[in-house]
Amino acid sequence: MKKMRLILAALFCAAATVSVYAADSAPSEFDRYDVNRDGKVNAHDIVAMMKFIADGRTDIEAGSYDNNSDGKANSIDLVRLMKYIAGGGSESTDSSGEDSSDSDVTSSEPDTSEPDTSDSSDSSDIPDTSDEPITDDTSGDVTDSPDPDTPEGEIAALNSSYKNTLSVIADKLPGIVCWGDSLTSGPGGNAMTYPKSLQNSINNAICSAYDPVSSLSDEAKSLVNPDDYKISIPVINMGVGGETTNTILGRNGAVPFVTSGSLTIPSGTTLVRISFKSQNGRDVAPLLQGSAGMEYVTISGVRGVISNSYGGYTFTRSESGSAVTVPSGTVITTAGSENYRDYITVIFIGQNGGFIGYDDLVEQQRAIIEHQTRNNDRYIIIGLHTTTPSNREDLEGLMVEEYGDKYINLRKYMATDAIYDAGLEPTKSDLQRMQVGYAPFSLLARDELHFNATGYELIGKLVYNRMESLGYFDEVKASAGISN
Predict the structure, then answer these.
(1) What is the average pLDDT across 307-327?
(2) Is 299 within 8 Å of 330 (Cβ atoms)?
């Protein structure tokens, strides 16, 4: 009896990662999450997928990385995997073997599968062995849960804490999405953008600081792999250069694009010309300097791609089917309107116009905020940094009145503290510009509009610090045991 218990305890320690196993799960589902094919669904799979995505690969050569079968291996698959582990195997399959889980998952790559609105409240039968007592099948005796002062007990507590942290991240901080124009996409920054700087700040302060294994005893540490306990909070750059506010809102879906004339989508995968405008009737011009949020669209139930070619826009359906007549005024559902809607938003729009008066700009910003399905009380508005204080006085006053501390006066920051935060000595020209309320040359690109790498890095840190002061990271830090 005692020998049997020791054997079972040893097996428990060797296998304990996040305690999600394939034994009672439908193989077709479990295999989608066991990406490294080691017979367990655990943080090893998260690390493997993170490395795959970090390599900049979106192909499907590895096969098993594409757990939602959309033809890509990307951050959507990573977040789905994290939610799966956090729920102890909470995703389920119906009798046909198809995934019936909630599709409210977002990432740096859009999900090209059809939206799934099914209920995800049913849990699978995968056991969570970290909370179950060890049973001796030969005698029928049941022992208590592992003693918390033993290595087994420490690991069980670690697994439970890790699952809880993943759950908190999925709910409160699944990611951050940055909507904007070229000031967000980042020309002039030599590969540095403010979303990238924000990602670096989050990684340094939260993701890399999360080290739950360090609190274990030496014996317990020898039984686990620290790489099995990692967290990820993606920051998504949805900036495209040259776009007005109306085009950005169309990519986002808050004020969608609509067809401005009727068309017939052919049955085959041949292109057809298409014209469209904003639902508010204003002109739009996407795909000039990028396709973020436009990787795919859906028109009258037909999924495909809009391209800027042949002197105008064309639509090509992804798969052959019945021909479809599309009336004028039909909504064009973009990838950006379906993904990232539970993320915290950072909005930096307006440099290229598109609004009629400052009240209209506020209404457009609010539309993006209200388009979010969750976390729409958590956002950051970045103000325009160009021209002088006298020219921006009314706008900046309205932003403060409307958004309070969720508004960042970027012009004021650039004209005062930014250059010193960067550790730079301002030049005479810098000081002259700062005295009249302009950003200094030392933080700008050659065009004197966009920022250089130092300028973008400062903006990312500024956004992080404002989010920190607003408490946007509090729940995750508390769950992860990270002090401010």
Answers:
(1) 96
(2) yes
